[in-house]
Amino acid sequence: MASVYNSKDFYPRPDFVHGNHRWTPLNEGWHILFDDQDVGLKEAWHINGVPDKVSIASSANKSTSEAEAQKLAAFPELKEKGFQAPKGQVREHVKKPINVPFVFQTPASGVYDKDAHEVLWYERNIVDPRQKAEVEAGDRVLARFGAVDYDVTIWASGHPVGQHRGGHVPFDVDITDALSNAWKMTDKGELNLVLRIRDSPHDLSQPRGKQYWAPQPESIFYTPSSGIWQPVWLETVPSARIGDSSAGTVLRSNNVFEGLLEARVSVLGRRAGHGYSAEIEGSLHGLSVAKKRENLPGDKDYVFVNLGLSLSDEQKKKAPESLTQVAPLDNSDCWRGNVALWSPDHPTLYDLCIRLYDSDGKLVDEAKTYTGFRHIDWTRGDRTLRLNGKPLFQALTLDQGYWPETGMTPPSPESLKLDIELTKKMGFNGCRKHQKVEDPVFLYWADKLGFLVWGEMANAYEFNEDYAERFSQEWLEAVKRDINHPSVVTWTPVNVCFDILRIESWAYPNLKDNVEQRNHIRSLYYLTKTLDPTRPINDNCGWEHVITDLSTFHDYSDHPELSKTCSTLEGILGKKLAGRDFFVGPVTLEDGRSDDGTKHREGAPVLCSEFGGVNIAPAKESEKGERDWGYTTASDPKDLLKRFEALLQAVVKAGHICGFVYTQLSDVEQEVNGLYSFDRREKIPATEVKKIVDGAKQVYYDSLPKEA
Question: pLDDT at residue 428 above 50?
C-alpha cells in the first residue's frame, strides 16, 4: 500500500499545484521507536540520532501513575473496559521500519502495535533535492506534512527546524539552512530528520474525534491514530512564492450574479523593500476568460485581486464542446447569465492560474488551482436552503473516513474518490465528514465530481482552558485549509454532547448552565463567520445549540417514533436524547452572571443531521462480532432496505425538513451499521437504495410552493 504514496504521479495537494516547484515523496525509509518513559530528549536522541532500542525501567513513572489513577477515579466505568493505571514492568522497545503515512496501530504500517504509546520518535535520512541552479537562485527546501497526530517537534541533524500542534491539519518546515550547514560541515547535502511526537492516549482535553482512550474500541469509538497519517514530501520552492489557503490565499466565488472572483493572494518570503505583483488568469475548459494584475502594497504580504469571470456573449458563442456537453448553454441550472455555475449535478469549475512577478516583471512563481461559482442562501425565512437561488435538498451520509487495514489514512488517494462514487451511486449528493478533517484529496474529488461536504473537526471530551486553546487553533487552521473548496457548503465545528458510554463527553457536557462552555462555542461561530461569511454554520450539531444558522438534530429512534417526531415542527424542536434541549435556554448563575440562551430562528432551515444507524443481525451466531453494534437491528438485508425507506420517509414526508444525514456510509470496526461493509461491499443493492433516496428528495421538492 505504501508504494502508492511513494509515486511521483501522486502530488498530495492536487487542488493547488506549483508548476515550477519540484517535489519528492518522503514516505519511504522511516523508522519509529516508542519512548514510553520519555527519555529521548534527556538522552539527546534529536542530536545524536534515535537509538536502535531503548530499555524501560521496572518502575512506572510516579506522576503518570497518579494521573491515570485520577482518570480512573473520575471515570470509574473505564475499569470495566479494561483500562488500568500503568504498573511496573521490564521490557524493551526496538526501532522498527514503518510504512508512512500509515500509523503504527494499523496493519498497513508494518508495525501493527495496538498498545498505548504516548511519545514516538520517527527518523530518516534525506538528501538535498535541489539542483545547482536552484541553490544559486536561493530556492528553499520545505519538508511538508499533510497531518501528524498530535504534537510534533522536528530536528534536522540536531538543528531545531520547527514544531506543530494539531493532529488534523497541514504544516511545513524549512530545512534549507540545515542543508546548507550540512554542505559546509560534511561536503554532503545529507540530513538526519528526527521527529518527536507526543499523542496522549488519555488526555481527554486533546481533540481526538472518534479515537478511543480506553484499551478496547467499542460502540461509536475506534482505534487511536498516532503519528504521521497523511503524506510527507520535500518541495523545492522559490524564496518568494504564492501561499496556499493555509497561508492566507482566499478565492471567494459566491458572487454568481456578476461572476466576480474576489481573491486575496498571499505571498510568502517577501523581502522588505522589494516590489511584487500578483496576476490571476481564469479560463473555462481551455477558453481564456479574463486576467488581472495588481501590485502588492508596500506594507502587506498579500494583495486583493477582483477578477470578473462572466463570459462575454462572444466568448460564450465560442464555448468548447467539452463545456457545452456538461453545462448546456440553455440550462439555467448550469448558467446564471454568462456565469458558469457549480452544483452537484453540474460541477463546472473555472481553472485559475496565479502568477507572482518581481519589480522587474520577472515571473517568480506560478500556482494552478480552480474555483466554482456557487451561492448558498439560508436566510430567506422559509426553512429552505438554496444553492444558486434554487431549493436544495441535502441527502447526505455520515462519513467517518476509516478503512480496515489503514485506519484514518485511505489505502490510496483513489480510495477517497471511490468513497464519493459509492455514495453518489446510492443517490446521496454529499456527506457530513464526521469528527475528522479529511485528506484534502477528498475535497479535490468532491469539487470535481459534484459532492456536497460538511466540514467538521475532531472534538475532545473534556472542557478546560487547554481544550479551548487547542481546539480554537486547530479549527482555525482547518477552515483556512478548506475555505476555497466549492464542495464545502457548511461548517460544523462541534458535535453534540453524547453520553452513550455513560461518560459526559464531546467537550461541552454542561451547556445547560455553563456560560464558559457556551461562550467558547460562540467564539468558534464568530471566528468562523469572520473568516467565511458565505457558508452557514452548524454550531453544535444535534441539540443544545448556542448560536447557529441551521437547526439540526439527531434522532436514532425507529421509524414509527421518528415519524411522530418529524410530523410537526414542535415535535422536531422538542426535547432530545436524555431530556436535552434543542436550544440552550436562559440561565442565571449564583454569582449574578446571566446568559439569555437562544431559540429557533423563525424560518431557519431544519435538518435531521443524524439518524438511521441500522445494522443487520448475522445469519449465524458464530458470525456475530463480540462488540458488533448498531442503534437498531434489521433481521436481514431485505429488512434493512425496508427499514431504510421507512426511516427516510419518516424524516421527509411532513415537509418540515430540508435535508438529512443518514448514519452511515460504511461499517467502522465494531460499529456495523453502514450501508456498505467496512471494506466497501454493498450490503443492499445500491440501485434500490438510490430509488429510495431519490424518492425522499422528490417528496421534499413536491412539497415546495411553486414560487420556491
Answer: yes
